[in-house]
TrEMBL record, chain A:
Gene source species: Komagataeibacter swingsii
Source organism superkingdom: Bacteria
InterPro entries linked: Gluconate_2DH_su3
Name the record gives this protein: Gluconate 2-dehydrogenase
Any Pfam family hit: Gluconate_2-dh3
Record's compositionally biased regions (Basic and acidic residues): 203-215
Stretches the record annotates as Disordered: 191-215
TrEMBL record, chain B:
Name of this protein: GMC family oxidoreductase
Domain of life: Bacteria
Family classification: Belongs to the GMC oxidoreductase family.
InterPro entries xref list: FAD/NAD-bd_sf (IPR036188), GMC_OxRdtase_N (IPR000172), GMC_OxRtase_C (IPR007867)
GO molecular function list: flavin adenine dinucleotide binding; oxidoreductase activity, acting on CH-OH group of donors
Residue ranges of domain Glucose-methanol-choline oxidoreductase N-terminal in the record: 108-309
Biological source species: Komagataeibacter swingsii
Lineage: Bacteria, Pseudomonadati, Pseudomonadota, Alphaproteobacteria, Acetobacterales
Keywords linked to the UniProt accession: FAD, Flavoprotein, Oxidoreductase
Residue ranges annotated for the Glucose-methanol-choline oxidoreductase C-terminal domain, each copy included: 417-531
Length: 215, 549
């Protein structure tokens, strides 16, 4: 399946040494791009389930390196970096994730006799929707409010990890880091030369050439 | 090697970071712990910052404590939403009630300068009637303050923060010209303007605390649009680059990475110092007076955590109202798509505003609201989209592709004070062993009526200018207030008009928590004005001998 590429040729990382990136930004983005691709907090089983869930929450095209979403969740759990608040109906995030991932496994085995990551994508989506709406069976959920876990963590954490990655910025045409240069042209349909051009249908080749000059 | 301000205090050994020069330092006076200083100020945000500067400038010995780091914006701030969550208070707080609050980004800071380091810089005055909303408008509670006096302090705050605003502001009584010219508006802000005009409402450039021309060591704003995760150029006139440097120059000390866990009270029932955690150990700082400026969660938490045998329900709490009447502001939005290439992330996020419904009383609910243009960055935007529209999977990625065509309007609305919206202590403890806050919040009928009214108005405004694919973000809230309200007597309030607690004469509370009502505008300028007034009142009381009573 090929999907429309709205900003062909645009790569926000090209601006790494431009006046749009300061040293703090380079330091942070190097760490983000260098995230270890294997679990350091979660168990192997939890990790496999998480990778499969991430693939459904943010399905990624095959023609580019994937954003390692599970790695960012694992990193967040390892550091126990929290959001500053917790719904009183949920346990702390590490426990919430561990209970939740285990419960996904139990549900998958009960419904299909297989691990979650071995289900078809349709089966995975169906199970995710059940959890999203709180239609769950397994006692494995215990006191964990499944719907709340889905919105706060499954959606909240995974989606935030994706849109914090330069690959997603290329996809949506976000200018990305912008200090100290900032922007000059503030009005509609005005583009600074360090912002990408959007391609209409059939314009991909020409726009791709233009976007390769964005820096 | 990068010195990490989150692990090691920077304001030590007689110097504090010079926020304007990479690697630079400014001299800082230091006070011995055992000798009582005139004032300890807990919190260095919109309340604490002006107090530190003004009290130090009047010759008092003052120490400002902050639980957070002393950032150097030029060196520490990346253009990045995720890593810049280092500016938010991310220690756990429990939230419950019918409408649990989201904490963190929108409503709390943990840094020298407080949440002004990451605020949207919107600097608005209250409508005068809000200071007497019970008497004049029939809801909430009156403030024990005269709006004309506040008008004077607003003007001073606007000068101190070099607010960039329009030549004449359309609403409210006359005010002086804003010190700096208004910022150029972006495409997203123009949509608000055209939508307001289509409805026959007035609009204005939003008065903002980011400079539109150089000011001292602050360069003109470069419109990078990462304001809400910290300004990396120092154009933003946060406390960190305004009142705090003034305070240091006048002889104040700042103790960064210093979490105050308890206010000590002597045998006479007066505050005598603070127990604080810094560099891995607990310390005690003696003080003749204590001012709490930790905002609507940490202020009541500290007062409650400071309970003694004599003050069993916490300090300053004979009324039982510490932690009560918590208010947030409704922050609902309507978003949509335009054919134009808008790129709403360019420039400060809220460049235009209409306060129409703050000043018009022909409505079937109490309180007011404004709405402003929007320009969220991708992480925040994806969270709004995915939670409000229940989007994930391919559908979410598809809709996110419209990022550069997106526009939106977001309200800041006045929620009314209710006794049962409150901050209490939970059983869980934090990294210092202190009980964490439980924040309980439920919307009431008036709040819901206002939200629906605002959503309808904002939607109509966008429809009138041809924005399509409209949808509503129904669940967002932002700024906080209440929990240590000021009032006319000790039975129905925690502090008096001077922000001085009724129970303990040398204990002040000066931040958003003293607000009896929260108004329909962002609170920071009012907090700043209130702090400037409080500093003046303290000086007057010291001169007349009232301080010793």
């Amino acid at each position: 399946m090929t999907e429309r590429n709205r900003y062909p040729g645009y790569d926000v990382l090209v601006k790494r040494h431009s006046p749009s990136w300061n040293e703090a930004t380079r330091r942070v983005m190097d760490a983000r791009l260098g995230v270890p691709r294997e679990p350091r907090f979660l168990s192997r089983i939890e990790w496999d389930t998480l990778v499969a869930i991430c693939d459904r929450i943010i399905p990624q095209p095959k023609n580019r390196p994937p954003v390692p979403l599970a790695a960012y969740i694992d990193q967040k759990l390892k550091a126990d970096a929290r959001n500053g608040f917790r719904n009183a109906a949920l346990p702390p995030q590490r426990a919430a994730w561990q209970i939740g991932l285990a419960a996904f496994e139990v549900e998958a085995h009960q419904l299909h006799g297989k691990a979650f990551h071995h289900l078809t994508t349709a089966q995975q989506d169906d199970l995710l929707r059940r959890v999203e709406s709180g239609r769950i069976d397994a006692p494995a959920w215990g006191d964990l409010d499944a719907a709340l876990f889905f919105s706060e963590h499954i959606m909240g954490d995974i989606i935030a990890a994706y849109y914090a990655h330069p690959t997603s910025w290329n996809e949506i045409g976000f200018g990305g880091p912008a200090s100290p240069r900032g922007y000059v042209r503030m009005r509609n349909n005005r583009r600074d030369p360090w912002e990408p051009v959007e391609a209409g249908p059939g314009e991909e080749a020409r726009v791709g050439r233009e976007n390769r000059r964005v820096r | 090697m990068y010195d990490n301000p989150l692990t090691t205090p920077r304001a030590t050994h007689g110097r504090a970071p010079d926020v304007f020069h990479p690697g630079g330092w400014v001299p800082m006076r230091e006070y011995p712990q055992r000798e009582a200083v005139d004032f300890v100020v807990i919190g260095t945000g919109a309340g604490g910052g002006p107090l530190l500067a003004r009290l130090a400038e009047r010759g008092y010995s003052v120490i400002g404590f902050d639980a957070g780091p002393y950032f150097r914006p030029l060196e520490d701030f990346a253009s990045d939403e995720t890593s810049q969550s280092q500016l938010f208070w991310t220690d756990e707080r429990l939230v419950d009630g019918a409408n649990p609050l989201k904490m963190g980004a929108n409503n709390s800071g943990r840094a020298v300068g407080g949440s002004t380091v990451h605020y949207a810089m919107v600097s608005l005055r209250f409508r005068p009637e809000w200071f007497r909303s019970r008497t004049l408008l029939g809801y909430g509670a009156d403030w024990p303050l005269d709006w004309r006096e506040m008008w004077h302090y607003y003007a001073r705050a606007e000068r101190d923060l070099a607010i960039a605003g329009p030549v004449s502001y359309p609403w409210g009584p006359k005010r002086p010209r804003y010190p700096y010219r208004a910022h150029e508006i972006n495409g997203a802000a123009e949509v608000l303007a055209r939508g307001a005009e289509a409805m026959g409402y007035q609009w204005s450039e939003t008065p903002l605390a980011t400079v539109s021309a150089p000011r001292g060591d602050s360069p003109s704003c470069v419109y990078r649009g990462f304001c809400r995760v910290g300004c990396a150029t120092n154009a933003k006139q946060s406390q960190l680059v305004t009142y705090i440097p003034r305070a240091l120059a006048a002889g104040a000390e700042i103790r960064d990475m210093a979490m105050v866990g308890r206010i000590a009270v002597d045998a006479a029932g007066r505050a005598c110092g603070v127990h604080y955690h810094r560099n891995g150990a607990w310390h005690f700082q003696a003080a003749r007076n204590v001012i709490v400026a930790g905002y609507a969660i940490e202020t009541p938490r500290l007062l409650l955590n400071s309970a003694t045998d004599r003050f069993r329900n916490g300090l300053a709490n004979s009324s039982g109202l510490v932690g009560r009447y918590l208010m947030t502001q409704s922050n609902q939005a309507v978003y949509g798509v335009m054919d134009d290439m808008v790129r709403w992330n360019k420039g400060p996020p809220s460049l235009t505003i209409t306060e129409h419904w703050n000043y018009n009383d022909r409505k079937d609910f109490h309180g007011g609201y404004c709405w402003m243009a929007q320009g969220p960055l991708p992480v925040e935007w994806s969270a709004a989209m995915s939670t409000s529209r229940r989007l994930w999977g391919a559908a979410l990625r598809e809709k996110m592709g419209d990022y550069n065509h997106q526009v939106g309007l977001k309200m800041v609305g006045e929620m009314l004070p209710h006794l049962d919206n409150r901050v209490t202590l939970a059983d869980e403890t934090d990294r210092y062993g202190l009980p964490i806050a439980r924040v309980t919040y439920s919307w009431h009928d008036n709040d819901k009526a206002m939200i629906q009214h605002a959503l309808g108005e904002m939607q109509r405004s966008l429809e009138l200018v041809g924005v399509r694919d409209l949808w509503r973000q129904e669940n967002d809230t932002n700024h906080l207030a209440g929990t240590a309200r000021m009032g006319f007597d000790r039975e129905t309030s925690v502090v008096d008009a001077d922000c001085r607690s009724w129970d303990i004469p040398n204990l002040w509370i000066c931040d958003g928590s003293v607000f009896p009502t929260t108004g329909g505008v962002n609170p920071s300028l009012t907090i700043t004005a209130l702090a400037l007034r409080t500093a003046d009142r303290i000086c007057v009381q010291a001169r007349t001998g009232e301080m010793r009573k």
